[in-house]
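Recall from the previous chapter that SMILES is a line notation for molecules. Here it describes zinc ion.
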Amino acid sequence: MTVTQQEMGCGRIPTKQLAFKALVASGAPALWRWLTQDRVAVLCYHGVSSSSGRPGVWNADGVHVGLDRFEAQMAYLKRRQQPVPLSWLCESLEGSRRLPARAVVVTFDDGLRSVVTRALPVLQKHGIPAALFVVAEAVGGSAPLWTYRLGALIDRLPPGRVTLDRLGQLDLTTLRARRLAFFRVRQRLKLTPAAERADILKAIEHVAGPAIAQEGELLDWEEVRRLAEEGFEIGCHSATHENLTLLSADASWREVAGAKATIEERLGRPVKAFAYPDGFYNERVVEAVRSAGFSLGLTTDPGLNRPAVDPFRVKRLLIGDEDPVAFGVALTGIRVVTSAAAGLGRRLARGWRP
Ligand SMILES: [Zn+2]
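With both inputs in hand, we obtain:
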C-alpha cells in the first residue's frame, strides 16, 4: 500500500488540505473524469470497520474503511459512476463487450470477514457488484495474515523506546512515532523471507504479549461460497500471500496455479482473476499468472485503465476513509497526477535529474 505523508501524520496536513480544497474548487477533478470517462477505475478495498477513523496503529493506513464512509462511497458510485462486474472488464479487454462511460469496478483483497458482515449489506442495498480476492491457504484459518497481526502487536508494545531482536530500537514515544515504526517494520518484513519474518514476529510478540487482530479475521469457505452465491466474483490472491517476486519459479508457480486449483475445487467454479499479493510482480510472475490460465492480473499500481490496458497489469486505486468529496477526486486518479506534479516540482527546484 502506498503511504502518503498525510497518512503517516507528518504534520503537513493544513497545507495539503488547502491545496486539496483549491483543487476541488477549480473543477479540475470533474473535468479530468469527463476527459477520461472511457477509462475504468478499479477500486481496491480490504476491510470495513464499525466506525471511521484510524485509532492506534492497526488501521494507520486506513486499510479498514469505516462503515459510514463505505456507505457514503457506495452511494456516490451509484449516483455518479457506473459500477460494473469485474468480468465485464475482462470481456471488454477480450473485445466482446463495450463498457459504459465512467465504469468502475469494486474489489476486496485478502478475504476479511468484514466483507460479509459489513460490506455485503451495503453493496446489496445499492446493487453494486464486487469481486473478492482470497488467499487460498488462509481461508478459514484462525491466524490473521501477518500484516494485520503486526499492527495489533505494535499497538501492544509499551510506550517509549523499545529494542527488539533484529529490528533494533523502535521509537514508540508518540502515536505518530509508533505509526512510523509500524510502516517501517512492515515494509522491511514485506521484503523478508517467510521463515525469518515468522521469527521476527515471534520476537515482537515476546515483548508485546499475544495480540488479537480482530479486524484481520478471515472468512471461511462456507462464507466465501455464500458470497459467490450472492453474486461476488471470487478471485485468487495467491496461496499464502507471499511476495511472489522473492520466490523461486517453482514456489511461485505453486502460489499461482496451486491456489487457483484449490479455490476452483472449493467453489466448483472457474477462477479467472489474480491479484498480486502486496502488488509485487515482475515479468516472471506475470508469465506464471498467464500460463496458469488466468485472464486478468490486478496490481496496486495507481491510476485509471485505458481501454487497451495490458490485462495482466490492471491498475487499481487503493481506497481508504475518504469522504465523498475526496472519494470523487480519488476516482479520477488525480492523486497520481498531483504527486507526479509534486515530484516534478521538487526535481525542478533542485535542478533536473531524471
Ligand atoms: Zn493482500
